[in-house]
């Protein structure tokens, strides 16, 4: 088979409706990615359980896959995220431990998450601010980590979680405020100062 005939995820899922064994191709393609994400959030052992359950659920619900999408990754991430919620205590423990380890390694500013629009900064911020991430609401934590660790776009996060893109943006903004309130306050003061300077210049010209 030539490289030009490689099937898309959508084609694999559609083929699996009549040939269930074809679904194994989807596992082979994405298991490492989904398994790595799950392990990062809840540890290796629980992550392997999440991986297995994710593909079992995906197989049973494959008829519900939105055929408008060629890639199944957001769909699989969404299933995994819902399963991860059963391991909330374990995830919180790992996040707190990651935060302590980061503190021991080096002193770092808390400013990382304001740059959530830049994926590498979001990834760094997620490690630095791990204890605060542990205190986020589950839906906000899922949104943040699908973006920062799952490498999904806002549109793909929205598909994964079954919410509008606007909701993803709102959750990211809320996470940013909760995780880095000092930076948000500084930004607000800077805007106020800038507004004051503009008002002063207008008054001087009058």
Automatic annotation (TrEMBL):
UniProt-listed GO biological process terms: DNA-templated transcription initiation
Which segments does the entry list as coiled coil?
none
First and last residue of the signal peptide: none
**InterPro entries given for it?**
RNA_pol_sigma-70-like, RNA_pol_sigma-70_dom, RNA_pol_sigma70_r2, RNA_pol_sigma70_r4_t2, RNA_pol_sigma_r2, RNA_pol_sigma_r3/r4-like, WH-like_DNA-bd_sf
Q: Which residues form the RNA polymerase sigma factor 70 region 4 type domain?
A: 133-179
One Pfam short name: Sigma70_r4_2
Q: Which GO terms describe its molecular function?
A: DNA binding; sigma factor activity
Record's keyword terms, sorted: DNA-directed RNA polymerase, Sigma factor, Transcription, Transcription regulation
Q: Which family does it belong to?
A: Belongs to the sigma-70 factor family. ECF subfamily.
Question: What is this protein's record name?
Answer: DNA-directed RNA polymerase sigma-70 factor
Q: Which organism is it from?
A: Microbacterium keratanolyticum
Organism taxonomic ancestry? Bacteria, Bacillati, Actinomycetota, Actinomycetes, Micrococcales
